[in-house]
Structures are given as structure tokens and as C-alpha cells.
Amino acid sequence: MTIDEIKEIIQNGENSYIEFKEEEIKAKELAEEIVAFSNSEGGMILIGVDDEGNIKGVKDDKIEETVMNICRNNCIPHIIPLYESIEVEGKRIAVITVPKGLNKPYYTADHKYYIRVGTTKRIASKEELLRLFEAGGSIHFDISPVEGTSIKDLNIDIIRDYFMKYNTFDLFEEPEESVERILVNADILKEVDGRKLCTVGGLLIFGKNPEKHLSQNGVSFAHFKGNEITDELIDKKIITGRIQDIAEQLMVVIKNNMLIPSVINGLKREDKEEYPMIVMREAIVNSLVHRNYSISGSKIRVLMYDDRIEFRSPGRLPNTVTIEKMKIGVSYARNPFLVKYMENMRYIDQLGRGIPMILKKMKEAGAKEPLLMEQGEEFVLTIYKA
After folding, report:
1. Please, where in the chain does CATH 3.30.565.60 lie?
2. Predicted pLDDT of residue 330
3. Using CB atoms within 10 A as the burial measure, which of 206, 214, 265, 356 is most buried?
4. What secondary structure does DSSP assign to 62-126, as a single string?
5. How many Cβ atoms sit within 10 Å of the Cβ of residue 58?
6. Alpha carbon of 21 to those of 31, 48, 150, 156, 238: distances in Å?
7. What homologous superfamily is domain 3-124 in, according to CATH?
């Protein structure tokens, strides 16, 4: 990093990725800052700069050793930052670049989990901590129990049909106590303190009314006349229910909102789809199966414009998944329960094939390459009109 780059960073002040600290910082406080950056998107700590951006400098010749010892002994799992010593205006600044953690969640020696929010750090809330564990692959939210639920919240007829078709036995021929045991073993129910509660996935696939207990379930669809969200609204719908039913309903809604121009081929008039329906189906199912359901109150958003459709799913990508990996079919099941059951019901062909297929089909259609990106707390898939 150059002196000019450091000066510009200092001039711009602290933000979500930049923290200033004076040399006298305590080991405990520095560990908290490093853990917070690792649990978030990474960042940079400048030691030798005060909160107002005044360069105070660092005099301790062993500051690098001190920082590395803190990362090794006060941060769990161990964090390996990039350390640089840069002289600015005759004063030495220690620059610690903390990478986005690949082994979340990280915590301090006193077992506290910190996250970075704006220009400050704070202890993660219960919901945020759950997301950190989920991002690290330690737990899967889709098999978590939902308080206030019971087997009465499940549609037993649909479960029976599923088991008849894919497990070839009749649930209704089993004794009542055996039915609950089967559903627990199938992760549709979960036993907690002697109570049998529905799991998140159990409600999403087999629930009578999933959104009664999971307000985040469902899709918010909006169609705009133009290419901006401020343009005139043509159609708006909220679609809820079991996720396989949401997928079918959303397909109909998108198709009804598409223009289907005709082309003359010889003596025949042929309809030309703006978006191949196989691509729409894959994008819909991908959003429903892979979104982060631990983010309460946030539905999937599908925004249709004149030139594109955006599929906005709550939740950033899990730890080891990158956009480049997704493009070549490398994937990770955030919700393995949903993947398994939707795969059995033939809504998913094979884990990891969805995005490469979308890219291939849109290229064949002569459209601009679909855009995949993380924006805030959403993963966004943008498909452009062919």
C-alpha cells in the first residue's frame, strides 16, 4: 500500500471497513475489532491514528509481534491478517488488513462474538449469531424447530402422498406414535424438551399455512413500466404458501406479465418468449431453495422491468461460495433439507447445475449475460431480456 493511498484512507475517515486506533490500544479491544471484521466483510485497522484522523504514530518496535500474538491467542479460530508498516509524515503507522473470515463465526478469548456495523463493532444478536453459524456450515436453519408449532400445522395428506410416491409406504397404515417418529427421523418434526415441533423446512414443504409461523416465507412480485423502480407499477402480487406451490404460482404470474411477440417463419407465425420458461423456473426454484430463511421479515423479491428481471434473495453467499464458483457449477446447500425434498419432487435437477444452465440458455437466446452479485444483505440474479 502506498503513502498516498494511506493518506486518502485517513482523509476519508472511519467506515464499515476502516478503523483507527492509537498505539495504547489494549489486546482485548484489538481482538474485538479483528473478530468483528472477520465476522463481517473484512476491513483495515490503522494503529497510530486517532478517531479524528490525526496521525499520532507508533513507537513500539514489537507492534507486529504483539498484533500477531493477539490474532493467535485472543481470536478463535486463529486469524492471520496482513501486516504493513508505513511511514507517513515522519510517523510510522501499523496497517492491519483483516480478511473476510472463511471459518465463521469467530469469537474472542472471553467467548464473545462481535460484528462490524457501520463505524463500530458490537456483540452479535441471537439472530445474527445464528446466521454466522449457518454461514460457517455449523448448523442448517431449515432443520431448526419453530416454536409454537406441532404436527397439527402440517398437511398430513401431502406428507402421505410424498411418502407413498418416494418412499413407497403408506403413512396412514402406521400407528400414531410411529408416524411422529418417522417425521422426526425425516427432519419434518424435531423433538425439543419432550415436545415435537415442526422444523422450518417441514413447514415450508408440508405446512398448512407456513407464513403463519414464518413471516419471511413467500415472494413479493412487482412489474414496472420502464427500467427503474420509480417507474409506473403495472402489477404487484404477494405469493405465499408451500414453496413448491409458490414456484408454480410465480411461474404463472411471470408468464402472464411477459410480452410474447410473434415472428413469421416461412408461412408460420411463431411466438418468441422474452425469457425462456426453463430459465425462469430454475431462477425461481433457486431463489426459494437457497435463500437465507433465518432473516425474518424479508421475502424474496422478484422485480420485472422492461429490459430485465431481478431475483433478489435475502442472505449473502455462504462462506466458501463465490460467484465465480457458482458459474462453473460449484455450489453449497445452505438448506439441505429443502434441496433434498425439492430434488425428490423433481423441482431441482442436480445441485450446482442451475446457474450454469441459466448462463448457457441465455447465451443461446442471444441475451446479455445474466448478472450475479451480492448487494447489501441480498443475493441478486439479474436476467436480461432476450
Report:
1. 219-384
2. 78
3. 206
4. THHHHHHHHHHHTEES----EEEEEEETTEEEEEEEEPPPSSPPPEETT---EEEETTEEEEPPH
5. 19
6. 12, 6, 52, 59, 48
7. Schlafen, AAA domain (3.30.950.30)
Q: What pTM, to 2 d.p., does this model score?
A: 0.72
* Residue whose grid cell is 419453530: 146
pLDDT of amino acid 350: 61
Cell of 277: 420458461
3-state DSSP assignment of residue 289: helix
Rounded Cα gap, residues 276 and 263, in angstroms = 16
Q: What's 228's DSSP letter? A: S
Residues of the chain with CATH 3.30.950.30: 3-124
CA 382/CA 282 separation, integer angstroms:
13
CB 277 within 8 A of CB 386: no
Q: Given this model, what pLDDT does residue 267 score?
A: 57
Which DSSP state fits 145?
A: B
Residue 287 contacts residue 265 (beta carbons within 8 Å): no
Task: State the pairing for strand pair 18-21/43-47.
Answer: parallel
Intervals of the chain under pLDDT 50: none
Answer CATH for 219-384 from 2.60.40.3500, 3.40.109.10, 3.30.565.60, 3.30.559.30: 3.30.565.60
